[in-house]
Design a protein that fits this description.
heterodimer, A: Rossmann fold, two-stranded antiparallel sheet, 6 helices, 11 strands, about 20% strand, B: about 675 residues
Chain lengths: ~250, ~675
Amino acid sequence: MTVRVGVVVFPGSNRDIDAVNALRVAGAEPEILWHETTDLAGVAGILLPGGFAYGDYLRAGVIARFSPVMRAVADFAARGGPVLGICNGFQVLAEARLVTGALLRNRGLRFVCREVTLLPEHMDTPFTREIGERRPLRMPVAHGEGCYYADEATLDELERDGGVLWRYANADGSVAGPEDQGNPNGSLRGIAGVRNAAGNVAGLMPHPETAVEAILGSDDGLGIIRSLVVSSAEWASTGSIAGTRPMAEAGR
Amino acid sequence: MTGPAIPPLPLHRTLGLEDVELEAIREKLGRDPNDLELAMFSVMWSEHCSYKSSRPLLATLPTKGEDVIAGIGEQAGVIAIGDGLAVAFKIESHNHPSAVEPYQGAATGVGGILRDVFAMGARPIAVLDALRFGDPSDARTRHLVDGVVRGVGGYGNCVGVPTVGGELVFDPSYQGNPLVNVMAIGLLEDGMLMRASADGPGNLVVLYGSATGRDGIGGASVLASATFGEQDPSKRPSVQVGDPFAEKLLIEATLEIIAKGLAVSIQDLGAAGITCATCETADRGGTGMLVDLDAIPRREPGLEPFEVMISESQERMVAIVEPGRWEAVRAVCERWDLPVAIIGRVTEAQDIVILTGPGERGALDADGRPVDGARELARIPARALASGAIVFERESRAPARRRLAPAPGAPAESVDRLPLRGQDPGAVLLALLGSPNLSSRRSVYEQYDHNVQANTVAGPGRGAAVIRIKGTTKALVATTDGNAPVSALDPWLGAAMSVAEASRNVSITGARPLGVTNCLNYGDPTRPEAFWALAEGVRGLADACVALGLPVTGGNVSLYNEASGSAIAPTPEIGIVGLLADVATRVGPAFRADGNSVLLVGHAGPGLAGSEYARLAGEAVEDGPPALDLALEKQLQAFIREAIARGLVESCQDVSGGGLAVALAEMCMWGDTGAQLRLGVGD
């Protein structure tokens, strides 16, 4: 039986199209979860897609975090289920405090859509386990508010706990600092994506779900989507995922 | 300062109507119009809505094609592409609003053309934007570029439609009057085709989407149909304000209404607002409407009836709905948090009748009959406002001094004397590659989301865009091209070359061009020289489309593109969509492998006038514009498509702006390689 992964649709979500396509390419069955529902229809994992939830006129994700579906997503996460937020989905997770940090306006103050190079870290997590040897990864970013920010102490703690899963890279393969050409938005320490302390909730600004077929320029994102699908299947059958710990123990 | 009292203009003049137009209105009504009726006529008879100067010319365009499902006169052209699918596409201008308020002008330009496409039942899958501005070193130009680019991006990015291509051109003639032309492409699934025709007397007129406010009052007549003075802040309230989030909801609600078969007809509200949407749909259906003014949801209190009727508030649609389906339509709109209201009834009598009620309960009862005490504010035959609008036979006169292009196929008599002008060819190439019109556009298109929806095979920056169609092997190929410099020398030739180049850009990917949409940006049609340029442009467009076998499926005419007494270079903007049967066979412009041979196909003739080189180096008197042989062009494109279909071609690039040198340099740079080339002597 194919694993069912929920795709949350807020009014204004637009990469839900990409997310549905990517989950199918990865062999999963996407299930649309409307923003007004608290019934997750028994899905084994959740993907929060990109877009402009509720228009994002105030600040990205700030309204979406109060939606009924997010209460259900928070419960799902607390039970250890895998949740991946991409772009606007990452912004919503950050606003909901399900992952650490904030996403500020891009350093260049402009929307930026281009291909970036990503260095994945910690290859045994629920969101990186299927990436394999192929790295760095090429995939697009497309956002106006993607500058990852947290204070220095929090960043140190995040790195110590293995919370950073993806960083932007320069052409020479080095990590792209806030001022570097390989960093599209000024994210501190080149951070493109993080996970929570429990390990079962992650978010990233780049779009692995748009880079799942060679005809579209890259299929480097497929490993991340497949990781979510495999982790969802594991959680559905065993009630836990290797490499994660209960949220109560993680403290956050 | 006080001067002699100026007598107030009569109302029709204030609204932009000429005396002869007032006479024609009196004739159609058999009486004097009241103020509301005059306001409705003024927007519907504006150049923008009525095509009153260009309609006789547009009737000469070839429109037939075996796969054409909907063409000129519909909200967008629709062409079948097999597998039960069809493509809807159209290009439209938003020049004048963008000159006044660049961000909102450009943003609402995107919104308007998207609505034209999804009103037909197509999901929007791509946007292309063709932009033209004045001197790039000028501070005001930079302000306009910045605002327009952010406006296109701000809207397109939020609604989730990729901006996959377009143009950015600088020329002094656009200094006071930039051009913002936006093309949208949508994909129609089987059974989704919707028309805007108010059939079935007794059916409900349903307005859904944003509430109606004061923005965009008279945009069509005030902005789009008059020339600009130096600085004109008084026109700012006429610019519409866009809400892309509302548009995204409108897309989803509209496609859901159509997929569920809930509507008889859908039309978007753009120029001339509710007036246009009601009279055009009634005119197409051979019906009329009772419109209950009180039932129209408002953004603010105190709106005058004429403001409600001509407001160009964005993100609104009018649907014609059978009474039994109203509850289902309402449920869809409420699910998407969109205001929705029954604002009238379709009638057999072919008049648009605007009513207001005596109290709070509105003007129509539950059965759609006027309640006791309802007052009639306006009554106009729908046809008089729409297809029966006035048409002008404008005077056309060729300018006294002009250069003639060589006749098609004739040997070019001009001689290019590039080396003789003392130029180092290497320095010329570098100057061309760094010139404002040929350099990289990355800083612009990186502000546009060009891959949302996961269909973009080739995005902006390298020739035509390629959009795959999920679930098939097919792809759509799209481009916009407009040759204004050659149009300025010879408007026939410039328009025909624009069609040839757009078609060539599609053919060199291996795709078969399907049809043409066009945005004709010209000057004040009441000036005989400007009207001549428009007439010659339409003739060139028609000749090229006939020669290349391409139907024209729609478009838009933007006149009065003049500022402070000087007109823009005539700019025929051509949008073409092509079909690639197997996306895997597509060819791109980058060189791919060492050792491949480079062939020049076609006729390399002289013709530097109107070129990018001439823009940098100036023209010698003996320079003429390039020759165009449409019969050869047809053969050339057929040859390229067949060679690609047979798998013989690794990469292909057309020779256009910057000539052969720039074309080859781009192929090298994009392929991260070099090439050794030997130019043959003679033909």
